[in-house]
Design the sequence.
């Protein structure tokens, strides 16, 4: 191999590595420290409790894909009216308002806005909107005190008694704007 070929090869490797844009060290540290103190963890090795829900004019697909030999959650959407993916906790975790939700999400070019929704112990829905205006992996940290009572919909019998987190019923992730996209999610943790 001559010098030019070697330089070309090195540049190609650099380009490929650059394109993959792995998590920045700072983000990796956030995930690792979250995992070390987590009150709740979902690494998506088993996604059987995650299900899709959607309106007639939408389609939502929940699946598992491998990224760097690690399973993560895939949410593929074509949103008309409404839809998302969620998990009902078989063993309801007990959290408190000082805890935070931390997870990794890989965005796309859809520029959609994710609604992260927690169903508290009375079935009341609390949400946080996250603009997914990035294509790479990003670590999102949301303190529970940033979740707001969902205004556009609540179950009929849900009491409006604040974000009561002693036996949390479920969590869901939904696109909120019409359109198509694919998001990957990994390392969801609740931390003190
Ligand atoms: Ca409540």
Sequence:
């Amino acid at each position: 191999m001559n010098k030019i070929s070697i330089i070309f090869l090195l540049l190609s490797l650099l380009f490929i590595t650059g394109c993959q844009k792995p998590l920045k060290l700072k983000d990796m540290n956030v995930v690792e420290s979250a995992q070390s103190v987590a009150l709740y963890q979902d690494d998506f090795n088993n996604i059987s409790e995650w299900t899709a829900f959607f309106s007639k004019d939408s389609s939502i697909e929940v699946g598992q894909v491998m990224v760097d030999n690690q399973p993560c959650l895939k949410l593929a959407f074509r949103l008309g009216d409404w839809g998302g993916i969620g998990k009902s906790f078989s063993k309801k975790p007990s959290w408190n308002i000082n805890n935070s939700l931390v997870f990794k999400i890989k965005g796309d070019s859809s520029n959609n806005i994710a609604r992260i929704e927690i169903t508290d112990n009375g079935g009341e829905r609390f949400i946080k909107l996250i603009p997914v205006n990035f294509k790479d992996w990003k670590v999102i940290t949301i303190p529970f005190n940033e979740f707001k009572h969902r205004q556009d919909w609540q179950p009929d019998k849900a009491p409006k008694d604040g974000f009561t987190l002693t036996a949390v019923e479920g969590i869901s992730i939904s696109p909120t704007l019409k359109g198509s996209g694919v998001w990957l999610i990994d390392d969801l943790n609740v931390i003190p």
In short: The chain has a mean pLDDT of 91. The first helix runs from residue 3 to 20. DSSP finds two helices and twelve strands in the chain.
